[in-house]
Design a protein that fits this description.
This protein is mostly helical. The protein is built from 4 helices and no strands.
Length: 102
């Protein structure tokens, strides 16, 4: 999810689209649908990791997906604003993910 962070162009494009979604209901609806699909995909990966024994069995996959997506979104903004480097973001996401494993 942090792919393309090195130069910030992907994050900047996403930020511009988010700004447009605030003004355009059609774009906003596409964002809602895309986010729901992404949340479902991440949740499914967490569920699969639990089934394989790679992740804690007591995790709530939807809640963890929501937290991970919020973390990545916030850190993406931090990269755009120059508050974090891509390497710091990757390290923080790795740290968070490591807490999900037994």
């Amino acid at each position: 999810m942090v792919v393309g962070v090195a130069d910030g162009r992907g994050l900047l494009a996403a930020s511009r689209l988010t700004d447009q979604a605030l003004k355009d209901p059609e774009i906003a609806e596409r964002f809602r649908l895309g986010h729901a699909q992404l949340r479902d995909a991440v949740s499914a990966m967490i569920t699969a990791g639990q089934a394989d024994g790679d992740l804690h069995a007591d995790l709530d996959p939807i809640r963890e997906a929501d937290l991970l997506l919020a973390l990545v979104t916030g850190l993406g903004d931090a990269v755009l604003l120059g508050h974090r480097t891509p390497a710091e973001v990757i390290s923080l996401v790795d740290h968070h993910l490591s807490r999900l494993t037994p």
